[in-house]
Specification:
247 residues, single chain, seven-stranded mixed β-sheet, Spore Coat Polysaccharide Biosynthesis Protein SpsA, Chain A, alpha/beta
C-alpha cells in the first residue's frame, strides 16, 4: 500500500491487435503467455494492492478476457482507441487512489522497478512519476508510470486531443506546469537496450533471455547480465524503430 488510506492499483493495458506482431500478448514464454508473465511479474511488487487487466470491448479481445477469467485476474473492458478513458474507467471500478500503468508487451517488467517508481511518487509528492521520462536510463520495456487518480481524472476532463488520449498519459507529462512530475532513473544508462515486444525480432530476444535464465523470477540486472554475455542478441532488434501504439 502506498500510504495510509490510499489504494494503489496496477492497471495493465492489453489487446490482441498489433500491426507488427498480431496476438503478441498471447505468445508463449517458457510455456506461459506473455500477458501472464507481465501480470505475474507485476503482482510481485510489494507496494500494490491489486493488479487489473484493462482490455477493449472489441470481440477480438474476448481471448484476453477468457485468459483473465481462467487465471483469476481482475479484468475490465473499455474503449479501444481512447486509452485514457479505459484507464479512468478501470481506476473507478477498482477504487484506485493511485494508478500504476503497465503495458502488456513488457514481459521483463521488474517488480523492483515498479516499487521504486511508486516510492519516488510518494516521496516526491508527485502527480506523475515514471521510469520512462526523458532522458530515460532504463532499458525500453521496464516502463512504469504512476499517476495520482485525481491527476488522471483531470487529464480525462481536459485532454481534447484524440492522439494523446490514445496513449493515455501525454497530457500529464507534457504539462509540467500543471502537474508535479518525478523522473525515476537507473544507476547507469542502459537505455540502448530494447526489451519490449512489438516485432518478431523483439520476441526472439525475450525468448532467448527467458530460455537462458530458465525461470521468470529474475530481475532486470539478471537479464542484463545475460544479454551482456551475448552481445549479438541485442543486435536482433537494434534496427527496430520504436512505434508507440496503444495496447
Amino acid at each position: 500500500m502506498t500510504q495510509a488510506g490510499s489504494r494503489t492499483v496496477a492497471i495493465i493495458q492489453a489487446r490482441t491487435g498489433s500491426t507488427r506482431l498480431p496476438g503478441k500478448v498471447l505468445l508463449p514464454l517458457l510455456g506461459r503467455p506473455i500477458l501472464s508473465r507481465v501480470v505475474e511479474r507485476t503482482a510481485r511488487a510489494t507496494r500494490l494492492d491489486e493488479v487489473v487487466v484493462a482490455t477493449t470491448v472489441d470481440p477480438a479481445d474476448d481471448a484476453i478476457v477468457e485468459l483473465a477469467t481462467a487465471e483469476g485476474w481482475a479484468v475490465e473492458r473499455g474503449s479501444e482507441m481512447d486509452l485514457l478513458d479505459r484507464y479512468v474507467q478501470a481506476a473507478r471500478a477498482h477504487d484506485a487512489d493511485v494508478v500504476v500503468r503497465i503495458t502488456s508487451d513488457c514481459p521483463l517488467i521488474d517488480p523492483a522497478v515498479v516499487d521504486q517508481t511508486i516510492e519516488a511518487f510518494v516521496h516526491g509528492e508527485a502527480d506523475y512519476a515514471s521510469s520512462s521520462l526523458e532522458p530515460r536510463t532504463f532499458p525500453r520495456g521496464l516502463d512504469v508510470e504512476v499517476v495520482a487518480r485525481d491527476a488522471l481524472e483531470r487529464a480525462w476532463r481536459e485532454d481534447d486531443d484524440p492522439a494523446w488520449r490514445e496513449h493515455a498519459t501525454p497530457y500529464l507529462y507534457r504539462h509540467p506546469e500543471r502537474f508535479r512530475l518525478v523522473r525515476v532513473s537507473a544507476p547507469d544508462d542502459r537505455s540502448d537496450h530494447r526489451w519490449t515486444v512489438d516485432t518478431p525480432e523483439d520476441y526472439e530476444l525475450v525468448q532467448r533471455i527467458y530460455q537462458a535464465l530458465g525461470r521468470d523470477d529474475f530481475g532486470w540486472r539478471d537479464a542484463l547480465a545475460v544479454v551482456d554475455a551475448h552481445p549479438a542478441w541485442s543486435e536482433l532488434n537494434r534496427h527496430v524503430v520504436q512505434k508507440t501504439v496503444s495496447a
